[in-house]
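ugh finaly. both done.
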Amino acid sequence: MMDESSGRPLDSADHQPRKKLKLTEADKKRSVRMFGALMGTLSKFQDETSKTKQTEAAKRRAAVESRLQAKLKLEAEALHMLRAYEVEETNLKQQVIRKTDELGHLSELHTIKFANRLACSHYLRTSTSKLTDADQKEPPLTTYGRPRHSEQPLFWLPHKLLPEQKEIIENQRREAQAEVAEDQIRWEEERLAKEEQLEKLQSHRDSRLAEIQAEKARARANADPTSDPTTANASLNPMTNDSPELGRRQTSEIRQDTPDVANDNGRDEDAVEY
């Protein structure tokens, strides 16, 4: 028999049907076991790959969270320190202002006291009435019902002075001048001591304010993201830079800076007028 397409005789084996392999029950079970083992290996490989990816992502997220938490902690501590420094600055300035006002007020009071003492010495005055034992038990009342603890003398001057009145006034003037001179000496010593204390307080304030400014600069440097070492390390880590979550978190952060307390230039704290 000839092949029509090729023109060559056909072999008897070519037109015989192929025999099907007969699988025994053991061969079928063996095939099932091999297929199950293959599927198990593939499934295990997929699980391990998925777990590895999840673990790496979790590690990256944990690293990002750790850096952000450390950064927020530094900023919170720096903000707390800045507020404490500002309170200390205000207290130092207010303390100097109070001492300066106190010294000026005392100087004004002593000036008025000395002037009144000398002015009253040019007048005659009434003698205070002596209280009896019954009056001393209960203080007398004024017109408005308030207790009057002492009788205030009245200062007066007649149109024409008698010789003895002139002598009284001269004695009063000499006594007043002597008393005022002694009081002025004592007050001058007290004023110099208070001025020395004020100068020491001002010197301490100035030195401490300079230290506070330096400490505030360091606190701001710690709170500044550009100087944060964790941020610097993150910029050098390619795995961290490839994470889109880190970029979103960093752009959403808000840094709170506390402005400096404005210096009180409207008042000279060191000036003391007398």
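ok and the 2nd:
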Amino acid sequence: MPRKSRPPPSGSPSGMLPGGGGVLTRTRAQWLRRLPAKDSDNPSRIPASVDMTTPPNLIQIPSLSNELILIPTSCAMMIGFASGATTAGKLAGYQFMVENLHRLPQTRANWFFFQKTKNYKIILGGLKGGLKTGAKLGAWTAAFCTLKEAFTLVPTIEGRKSLAGALSGVNIALGASLFYRLQPILSPQRLLLGTLMGLCAGLAEDAKAHLEGKIPKL
């Protein structure tokens, strides 16, 4: 005869029988189906909404503009190379002529080799002088542009390119005076020249921003 099922004893969960593994397994499966699914259970599941807002406690640090530093520095290096190569090439040619005045060639073949050697000296001297002058001018220009952009990040000077340029010009002129050990009588002139050049550079950027529709701060 078929065995009659007994009612569950008091204190045991509904649908769970002592020793009834099948009923207990089905009950757990039912409970698991009722639980809400987590994103970690299914890696391919995409959350319904993603919070893309910046936390209020996260401070955004401003960064320097690379274009306003690299472009002027590159132009200054090219101008310095051209100027230094021209000046150093001429000096190398004059020096070669002075060093060989006492042994000038007497034949056409010797004059050919003399001029050929002179041209080599001019090219070599021009390359050395151009690289040296271009590196110096590029370094000072990079320092000026970096200082100017750093000054514009200060809250009290933010947006005032003319003021930032003037301050950068003063600092660069003071640094150049100390580096090259200029005479005290020449230092005020260099400081004034650096201030005016920096102010002109800042005013040029303010004028550019005004033409683009961005009214600079006064």
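summary for the 2nd one i guess: The chain has a mean pLDDT of 78.
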